[in-house]
Design a protein that fits this description.
Length: 484
């Protein structure tokens, strides 16, 4: 008898039966199957073994054969990759928990992206539709970006802060005129994160030191590690790093790069005063180094104007990064790096090698939004909303959390930085709060080395402000349980 082909015929018929049966149903006994298919018991058992191998049924000795709960495809075996990949390239590399997308019922105070109502939604949609119908949907833009968009970023930088700050710099009493940044100094990037990665790769070599404020932006920490740089942390507990500590860090590490957020630092919210900025810039110059200035919150200046250091840097020491992701739309990934001299050409080369050029559709749409007469009015209204959100969250924290939890009221940006009571570990607090339906960002992710205490970051731009009260009450109850 040809067991092979008749067992396959039986298996095929049983597969059809199984599809119609709920899991756990018993298959008829072997004797019943031999009668139904007119086959011997060996052939029937061979067919059943095929179905067992396929995971469709299981045999329970003494009980019979049963339809199995449908299993998702069996887990693939990737263990070979462990040997193929070898050690991690960037020791301690991770993706910040700010990137989680929680379900709607969760109160998401963890993320960094402003809510829709803070964005110029209609202007963005109109601009994208128009760009899609224009030549920019088909053309390859110049590698460094559209000339008009580069000019817009240069002009913004030249006119940021006071005219005096933009036009002059004082050095030992002498007043020097600073050439305004030009469109040629600007490279368009697909977002601020990409800009940081390019700058770190272009200006550093694997193994080089980079000084960073601690705490600081997790994405910059991750990008520096990915570029193979060794992070040298300098503390930034108060408003600015101490120029003396910074000078020592330069001397000890021989670093030529210093990444910083002079205005509304993420996560602490602190800003350097103009005097502090001058002293820090002097240390950078004395050490023949670059200051990579991440002006991430330029559009979120609430009570204090932003005067980028790059606007008063004549010698090419400041490499300036500005992104439109959070103020135009997270879907319009456009940022710029402003740099001068050979540093600019190295950054432009890195950009081309990494991605050739940035989509012209996005560049055209971004330029239409920020170049429109309605843009300044939108920014004013958005800042007004952000002030209300910040003040409401600050008031709730003052009312419901222990005194001293809020480290400072930031004069711009999107975040509050909280210090947890002694003995409370941020990861545990964050996990318990998440179980109770509130997401916050654990402070540990914002330190390039060991955290100096239990901290968490709360973002006031994303979640619905009508749920701030509920969120802070949950945080207060969570803290209460951990302190007791
Ligand atoms: C301080 C800081 N720099 C850079 C970025 C990255 O900007 P983008 O969203 O444009 O990639 C972020 C994003 O959260 C940020 O917080």
């Amino acid at each position: 008898m040809n067991h092979g082909s008749s067992s396959e015929r039986i298996a095929a018929a049983l597969r059809d039966d199984i599809r119609a049966l709920p899991s756990g149903s018993a298959l008829p006994a072997t004797r019943a199957l031999t009668l139904r298919f007119g086959a011997g018991p060996v052939t029937v058992q061979q067919a059943v073994r095929t179905l067992v191998r396929e995971g469709l049924v299981e045999t329970r000795p003494g009980a019979g054969t049963f339809v199995r709960r449908p299993m998702a495809s069996p887990p693939a075996d990737y263990t070979w990759q462990t040997a193929a990949l070898g050690p991690l390239r960037a020791e301690g590399a991770f993706v910040g928990s700010t990137m989680q997308t929680p379900p709607v019922e969760v109160i998401g105070l963890h993320s960094g992206y402003p809510a829709d109502e803070l964005l110029p939604a209609r202007a963005v949609q109109t601009a994208l539709a128009r760009a899609a119908r224009s030549r920019s949907a088909l053309d390859r833009p110049p590698a460094s970006g559209l000339p008009e968009l580069r000019a817009w970023f240069a002009d913004e930088l030249a006119h940021s802060g006071t005219q005096r700050a933009a036009a002059e710099q004082s050095t030992g009493g002498a007043v020097l005129t600073v050439a305004a940044p030009s469109a040629g100094d600007v490279t368009i990037m697909p977002g601020g994160q990409s800009a940081l990665s390019s700058v770190f790769r272009a200006l550093g070599r694997p193994g080089d030191a980079i000084i960073m404020e601690s705490p600081g932006y997790w994405g910059a920490i991750a990008a520096a590690r990915q570029a193979g740089l060794v992070i040298v942390p300098v503390p930034r507990d108060g408003a600015a790093v101490d120029p003396v500590v910074l000078a020592e860090a330069f001397e000890r590490s021989r670093a030529r790069l210093f990444y910083a957020m002079p205005h509304f630092a993420n996560p602490t919210g602190g800003s350097w005063s103009p005097g502090e900025a001058d002293r820090i810039l002097a240390v950078v110059r004395e050490n023949g180094a670059f200051l990579i200035e991440d002006d991430w919150a330029h559009d979120f200046a609430l009570d204090l104007p932003v005067r980028p250091l790059a606007a008063r840097d004549a010698g090419g020491h400041v490499v300036y990064v500005r992104s439109l992701t959070k103020s135009v739309s997270p879907a319009v990934r456009i940022a710029a790096v402003v740099a001068r001299g050979p540093a600019r050409s190295r950054i432009q080369t890195d950009r081309v090698v990494d991605g050739l050029y940035v989509s012209g559709v996005l560049q055209t749409a971004a330029l239409e939004v920020v170049g429109a007469p309605s843009w300044p009015g939108h920014l004013r209204r958005m800042r007004e909303q952000l002030r209300l959100r910040r003040d409401s969250l600050v008031a709730l924290i003052d009312e419901l959390l222990p005194a001293g939890t809020l480290t400072a009221v930031p004069q711009g940006g999107l975040n509050l930085w909280l210090r947890l009571p002694a003995g409370v570990e941020a990861p545990e607090f964050v996990a318990r709060a998440a179980e109770a339906g509130v997401l916050v960002s654990p402070g540990d992710e914002w330190f390039p080395a060991e955290p100096t205490g239990g901290f968490v970051r709360l973002n006031y731009s994303g979640p619905d402000p009508s749920r701030f009260g509920e969120g802070v009450r949950i945080l207060a109850a969570t803290l209460d349980r951990l302190v007791r």
